[in-house]
Amino acid sequence: MSSDVKYAVRLFRRSPGFTLTAVAALALGIGVNTAVFSVVNSVLLRPIAAPDPDHVVVFGTVRPNGPPLGASITRYLVWRQLGDVFENVSAYRFGTMDLTAVDKPQQVQMAQVSESYFRLFGLAAARGATFSPAQDQPNAGHFVVLSDGFWKRAFDRDPGILGKAISLSGSPYTVIGVLGADAVTESPRPVDVFVPFQIPSDSTDQNHFFTAAGRLRSGVTRGTIDARLAQATADFRRRFPNVSTMLPGYAFGVQPIRETIGRDIRKPLLVLSGAVALVLLIACANVANLLLMRAAGRRREIAIRSAAGASRAQIMRQLLTESMLLAMTGGVAGLIVGLAGVRALTAWNPVYVPGLQSAVEWRVAAFALAISLVTGVVFGLAPAIGSSRIRLDLALKENGGYAGTGFRQKRLRGLLVVSEVALAVMLVIGSGLLIRTFAVMRSANLGFTPSNVLMMDLSLAGDHYEKSANVTQLARTTIERIAAIAGVETVAVGCCPPVGPVPNGPYYIPGRPVNGNFHGRANYPVVSPDYFRVFQIPIVEGRGFTENDNAGAPLVAIINQTMARKFWPNGGAVGHLLGTTADSKDPPAEIIGVAGDTGDRTSLKDFEIVYFPLAQISDAYIGYLNRMPTKWMIRTRSGAGSAALTQNIRRELERASGLPVEAVHSMDELLDQSTAAQDFNLVLMLIFGVSALVLAAVGIYGVLSYSVEQRRREIGIRLALGGEPGGIRAFVFREGMRLAMTGTAIGIGAAVVFVRWIESLLVGVEPYDGITFLAAPAVLALVAGAAVWLPAIRASRIDPMIALRYE
Questions:
Q1: Measured between alpha carbons, how far is 213 from 258 in angstroms, rounded to an integer?
Q2: Can you give the C-alpha Rg of the chain in angstroms?
Q3: How many whole angstroms separate alpha carbon 663 and alpha carbon 677?
Q4: Is 183 exposed, middle or buried (0-12, 13-18, 19+ CB in 10 A)?
């Protein structure tokens, strides 16, 4: 083996062009695979922060369409009673609070958890203790457990912190413990403080706003789990017969916690992993072709070695050693390329990719090593087998100009080129569909004007803001003070801008026939009066909200055009009543206006929307809304969106509220964040598509260049006998384009299946989009034509005398 390696190194040094081309192709294929695997490893394969994680499951309500619903308090109380199946069931959610009553208030990452959460996920206190069952009861008081990092950052590791009170969102919380430095949670961001959930056992809250997880008891079978959950579903339906989120076909279920991590991006990542594997196949085919051509030129050398006594196994070993050495060199280069790609992705890090790590872990390095070994065998096996089967009598008679021009060699090389082109067509079509998706999303009519709108978030968690009147007063005060700043045009406060998460619920229109106790579900934004002016959303019928739509006035609502067209296609929605459900004890609201439709770029669908005035929201609903940051939405005058103005607004908002602003961004930035997932998919598929095009072009060029070189004598004779250079060019061009067009036809057929695989990544574009299916082959034909034309030109310029003298 040592002599084989030394001989291979000498060969590669004598052929630097071949070596660099092969290593570059492998580095590209292995590098992009390593980069994508790093993302998969970070998101889907990272260890679960729980002891024996295979026994930890997440509860949910399974729906016929769409992902499972999360946990509500009523559901959690039911699941908590399944003690014969689960050792413990824990509730938890992640959010933010504010560290107040300090010189400079700051936002902190919060986990609201039930007392069993720490046992479930194996978290222990290094100082003090975690929550007891008594501390997790309603009205038990305010308690907090600190993370080690927050204890160090905010309190300089004060050893006397236990028993002290710290102010979180304006309320005093007693510190009862500090977790160890090695404590890890499943939160997207490191948690600073843990506060008890304190869920009341008699609650009827049906809102889904947290996660429930439990640990399976040893020996429990899947059949037992399904039977108990089915029984729990039936019991829940009997207790709450009119809950809108328990329609027919809905049922309680559990899912291993490992499968819930990165649930929203699991399928796109797997799709992209399959696509990047095609790039590696193209690279392998490319290098295999290079080795076949090289082996064909070495037939005389191999025949001499065989005649001198080398066995077939020794020859195969030598050739496989060369291919493995190429693969390992390409693997090292690919690991460097992959590391650079991971760092680029980390610097970009779209918000939808959690846990993206910049460091190459052992799994990633092992993956690069394994894929290098596999590719070395894949692209080296066929040339090694073929070369070891040569007939000595024929090989020793072969002239260099004819070596490797046999039918079998040509057929195998042509097959590899056709395969490269077919795979490239598939990836280019996939890239084209995502480009079309990008264009459709960017040209979508949003129904509002995002330019010159600033967004600022405040967390209103805490006892003081559990009252609707206090939130309304804060909104009124801050709006007045911000509106007085030069450069500010309009200010609004609410739960939700037109893009992003928004609460939703059932609605019922009194007087209309209904199958059940509600007519449908709608998004429920809660906003202050100037919301429609901030986003320039037109009121097409009736009026907008005013300051008179307050807690003492009759309840009112504004619906969007989609909902108005559904029930009042000829107009006349204003004046009708709107409730939540037919049996609701809350009075219905009067529809006072119809607003223009708004949408986002990610779905391009028109949703039914019901707007409610902030001043009329109940205390219970305000408490629910405060679980996510409240938005201050400010429209500035054209050209006034400077950093100085933004800082002035932020400073005034913090002074007026006494709370730290959590985030500042423009509406344009929010729109970009909303399409981060699609942009991420597009960039990766573009990289794959361009890589495939380059590799396919190199493959075609290499085969034709070698063919021209091997047929110099034939071409020289043709020219000497009166052949025209144009005819030679056409002959070589037809031969190359025949391979390209054959591969293109096969690739289009394969793409019919491939696009169904990536259909989930498309928005507003049909999988069999005619423009894409025409444009992608056209692009590949242009690239292939350029790759074919260069050898054709070189063939037509061969000097017959030199070619014949050379032979």
A1: 12
A2: 34
A3: 21
A4: buried
Rounded-to-integer distance, Cα 708 and Cα 731, Å: 11
| Other CB atoms within 10 Å distance of the CB of residue 351 | 12
Could you give the CA distance from residue 193 to residue 110 in angstroms, rounded to a whole number?
5
CB 252 within 8 A of CB 236: yes
pLDDT digits (tens, 9 = 90+) for 386-410: 655 655 555 455 554 444 444 455 6
DSSP, residue by residue, 64-124 = SSSSPB-B-HHHHHHHTT-TTTEEEEEEEEEEEEEEESSSS-EEEEEEEE-TTHHHHTT--
Q: Please give the Cα distance from 459 to 599 (Å, whole number).
A: 25
Distance CA 621, CA 471 (A): 12
Q: Which of 136-150, 486-500, 678-692, 793-807 has the lowest mean pLDDT?
A: 793-807
C-alpha 555/C-alpha 217 separation (Å) is 50
Shortest CA distance to 149 belongs to which of 176, 125, 179, 169? 179
In whole numbers, what is the pLDDT of the chain averaged over residues?
84
Q: pLDDT tens digits for 538-581?
A: 999 999 999 999 998 999 999 999 999 999 999 999 999 999 88
State phi, psi for 394 to the nearest 5 degrees: -75, -40
Contact 21, 702 (CB under 8 A): yes
Burial of 40 (C-beta count, 10 Å sphere; 0-12/13-18/19+): buried
Q: Tell me the C-alpha distance between 143 and 428, whole Å.
A: 57
pLDDT of residue 173: 95
Element (H, E) at 558: strand 556-560
Report the alpha-carbon distance of residue 594 to residue 156 in Å, rounded.
55
Cα 800 to Cα 411: distance, rounded to the nearest angstrom: 27
Please, what's the b/e burial string for 423-447 (b: 16 or more CB within 10 A of its CB; e: otherwise)? Answer: bbbbbbbbbbbbbbbbeebeebebb
Report whether 595 contacts 533 (CB < 8 A): no
* CA neighbor of 289 nearest in space, from 697, 573, 630: 697
The answer to whether residue 601 scores a pLDDT higher than 80 is no
Alpha helices in 499-589 (DSSP H): 531-534, 561-567
Ramachandran bin of 349, using left for φ above 0, alpha for ψ from -120 to 50, beta for the remaining angles = left
The structure's pTM equals: 0.77
Cβ-count burial of 723 within 10 angstroms (0-12 exposed, 13-18 middle, 19+ buried)? middle
Question: Hey, what long-range contacts does 180-185 have (CB within 8 A, 24 or more apart)?
Answer: 180/123, 180/124, 180/125, 180/126, 180/148, 181/126, 181/148, 181/149, 183/123, 183/124, 183/147, 183/148, 184/49, 185/49, 185/111, 185/121, 185/123
Cross-strand pairs, 526: 612
Which residue did the predictor score with more confidence, 32 or 458? 458
Over residues 184-235, the pLDDT tens digits come to: 887 778 899 999 999 999 888 888 889 999 999 998 999 999 999 999 999 9
Where does the pLDDT of residue 130 fall: very low under 50, low under 70, confident under 90, or very high at 90 and above?
Answer: very high
CA dihedral 276, 280, 281, 287 (to 10 degrees): 160
* Structure tokens, 728: 């030679």
Count other C-beta atoms under 10 Å from residue 587's C-beta: 10
3-state secondary structure of 507: strand
Q: How far apart are alpha carbons 237 and 239 in whole angstroms?
A: 5
Which tokens is 611 given?
């707007």
Pairing verdict, β 577-578 and 589-595: antiparallel
In order of 123, 155, 183, 196, 716, the CA distances from 160 in angstroms are 22, 10, 21, 22, 93
Residue 699, pLDDT score = 79
Run of H or E including 398: none
* pLDDT higher than 50, residue 351: no
